[in-house]
Amino acid sequence: MHMLTGVALFCSVLWAQLDTIVIHSSNIVCQTCRRTIIRGLSTRKGIRFVEVDIPNKNIFVVFRSDKTDPSQIRRSVARLGYNADEVPYDKEAYERLPACCKSDRLH
């Protein structure tokens, strides 16, 4: 019986370390943007799940709060070439994006 209590306690501690952030990115325009962001963030330390809502231009990220934090995640998004709330995209990364991911309205 003590073993089950220990496992339950371990699992609750592990889940307690997960947090969620929603980042608005005004320059998400297509499925290629979605794939770029998911692939780019999924390899970052501490990130457990990423989804991109193209119509609403939001990025949903589930992460381990003991491994990363919202400001690091926003900077990671910016380094991929996308705005991340108040953090502007990296201009060099933006230039490397496929043509379908660029919008003249952003300049």
Q: What would the average pLDDT be, to the nearest integer?
A: 86
Number of strands: 3
Q: How is the main sheet built?
A: 3 strands, antiparallel
Encode the helix/strand succession as letters: HEHEEHH
Strand fraction band?
15-25%
Number of helices: 4
Question: CATH architecture, please?
Answer: 2-Layer Sandwich
Counted up, domains total 1
Spans of at least 5 consecutive residues with low confidence: 1-10
As for the CATH topology, it is: Alpha-Beta Plaits
Q: Output the radius of gyration.
A: 17 Å
Find the structural class using helix and strand composition: alpha+beta
Range of helix content: 40-55%
- Strands of the widest sheet, in order across it, are 1-3-2
Determine the N-to-C terminus distance: 63 Å
> What overall form do the CA principal axes indicate?
globular
Level-1 CATH class name: Alpha Beta
